[in-house]
Amino acid sequence: MSIEVEIYERIRYLHEHEGMGQRAIAKALGISRNTVKKYYDGSHVPWERQGISGRKPYVITEDVIAFIKECLAQDETENIKKQRHTAKRIYDRLVDEKGFTGGESTIREVVAQLRETKTDAFIPLAYDPGEAIQIDWGEAKIYLAGKKITVNIFCMRECYSADIYCAAFYRQNEESFLEAQISGFEYFGGVSKRVIFDNAKVAVKEGFGAHAKVQDKYKALSAHYAFQCEFCNVAAGHEKGLVEGLVGWVRRNIFVPIPRVNSIQELNNELMNRCLKYRNHKIKGKPSTVGEMAAVSRAHMTQLPRYKFDSSKTITVRADSFSTVRFDHNNYSIPCQYAGKEVSIKGFGNEVAMFYRNTEIARYTRCYERNKTMYRLEHYIDLIEKRPRSVFNAKPVKDSISAELIEIGRKLSGPQEMVKLIRLLVDYGEEKLIAAISHVQSPEISVEQIQAYLMPNFTPAKIQPDIDIKVARPQFDKYDSLMKGDAVV
């Protein structure tokens, strides 16, 4: 128990000056001998709290403890050092998922007991509106269509308002680097005077810091958008501490638990939503919200140029006789009518687009593997209809449709019927086609039966017979006068 300073003074005086023992002091002062034992030699003082009492707060139920342990165990299972639950993230999840009503400090105390905690310190920086933007890369794990992969997160932060922009890419290559900055400038609504980055090879040819030599295309980008490239010194992350902190914040708050998405675009849509939501946030010590301060910065930024910089890696190739073009170690199909023609290919960070005479003819999610061929069934369907006997051996067919549809096609009356089934697949999509097939009750399935369920059933609009239409009464007397040759007034 804690005691008053006056009692503590008497205990110390009687022990040091009167030479009294613990039992005698306890009897003289009418207090517990254990209390005397605690304070008489000066090893404890009553005005300082001696750690946690050990009593469990009533809001920390067994379910809460189990949830916290589950979060920490999930971190151990995933084994991703920079993508773990923080105490705050656990608290936020408890509030959202379990309806927790206790305080954040209570959860921090429990988490601290279950594992050691470490707090990173950052040097505070001050910038004028529109003066500088800091950029950086980070990595995070996601489940993409059920497969666990590593994606690269581009992070961008306006230094005055702390406004943020984030986007996910498959690689940290030049195309992604340039594309991400252009998208970030468009999100911020302007360009700062300086862009601060480290010495990564996508930006720097050689040297570092003030002596860095800028890559040619990045130099062209900075000239077009009128900003100055500024590079940090080696091992000086504090020089871009705002964006360093953002990379960690994104991992902890957006990528915990690990996102499960069907496409990288779905992930980027979520990142954009979180960036927009962050503008409602008010940072401690700032005069207003992030969004309000971002509007102030926008007024001081350089306007975006009228011409958007082409960040792609562009080549021109001749399509082969199989109607495919090769880009970055992989082949992509294009419509058959362009076989043998010269096609322009633009490789962006996450996509590849094909153009013929400035008209886009195909677009794919960019493949970063080697020696793969991506086919689109719609590129070959016209040719397959002319040569139906090839349908069961056509590689675009085998690579594009499910084994279930292949099996259904083999039950049809012949290759021509299979080609008709593929045409329906191209026109309606696999989901609608499978749904239509499931409605067919006959043991001998036909394309006509399937098509009957796919064709829309139009119901003619009903005519309202009671519409009152006012018609002016004809004036036959004037017509009779005209026929007689009389003048009509």
Mind explaining what this structure looks like?
- With 489 residues, this protein is α/β, with parallel strands linked by helices.
- The chain has 5 domains: 35 residues; 53 residues, no CATH class; 169 residues, 2-Layer Sandwich (Nucleotidyltransferase, domain 5); 62 residues, no CATH class; 77 residues, no CATH class.
- It is 40% helix and 17% strand.
- It contains 18 helices and 15 strands.
- The strands form 4 sheets. Strands 1, 2, 3, 4, 7 and 8 form a 6-stranded mixed β-sheet that branches.
- A hairpin with a 6-residue loop joins strand 5 and strand 6.
- Helix 2 crosses helix 3, helix 12 runs antiparallel to helix 15 and helix 15 packs across helix 16.
- It is elongated, with a radius of gyration of 36 Å.
- The model has no long low-confidence stretch (mean pLDDT 88).
- This is Transposase for insertion sequences IS1326/IS1353.
- One of its GO terms (biological process) is DNA integration.
- Pfam families: Mu-transpos_C_2.
